[in-house]
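Exam revision sheet. Question 4 asks you to relate a sequence to its structure. Input first:
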Amino acid sequence: MASSSAIEHQHFSSVGSTNDLALEAFRAGRADSLWITADEQLDGKGRRGRNWVSPPGNFYGSLLLVDPAPSEALPQLAFVVSLALHRALARALPPIVQSKLTVKWPNDLLYDRKKIAGILMEANHMAGRTGIVIGCGINCTSSPATAPYPVTSFSAEGQVISADAVLELFSAEMTKGLSEWQQGKNFASVREAWLQRASGVGEEITVRLNDRELNGRFSGLDATGRLLLSHPENGTSVISAGDVFMLPRSDPTPKGH
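Answer key, structure tokens:
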């Protein structure tokens, strides 16, 4: 993945899911990186089996990476990707509003504390190789009418970011991010940069797990990227996977930069 221009890009007007097409390419023997984008998805996928509403006007794209790192480092890719996407979108925003764009554990992006982009990573192992598909949906012009959390789009926030601009910026930042990460050897640097842009650090949050909810203070990430949730009387929970919900606060100025 030496440069964004070196990655083949396939674009479609309408698909079921860009992630599915990228996974099919890997299963068919694809051995190098591939971008797949679409104007709309008829069966877009979100985290935990949710549907990702995908009307025309927004960005829908998936990046296939083949054997990007040793297996133990692959979970770190969520931070590499969300950090690269944050850097890409921040470059497209006026400086006066860049601070409104933040990352949310494990891999969402927020604008003014409302979800504006989501990332879904899927893996497939075949013939001794690992294909990682990084799917990304960005609300450029519209957002879902209903959602379990606040959502927005760049258009609704008075910002203009096109899907074409997103691809160019995101691809370039992914190249830089993968180089910085060094296949997991330099995750400490990625982790620090991610935390500098994170929403909710030091705040009370709710983490929804499969079987329960936990409340506490988001005190940071451990060395592997797991969320640290501090409880005043019960120590700290270390969370590998879950949905984070920010609690309302009176200060309307988001953190991060």
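Marking note for examiners. The CA atoms of residues 112 and 252 lie 8 Å apart.
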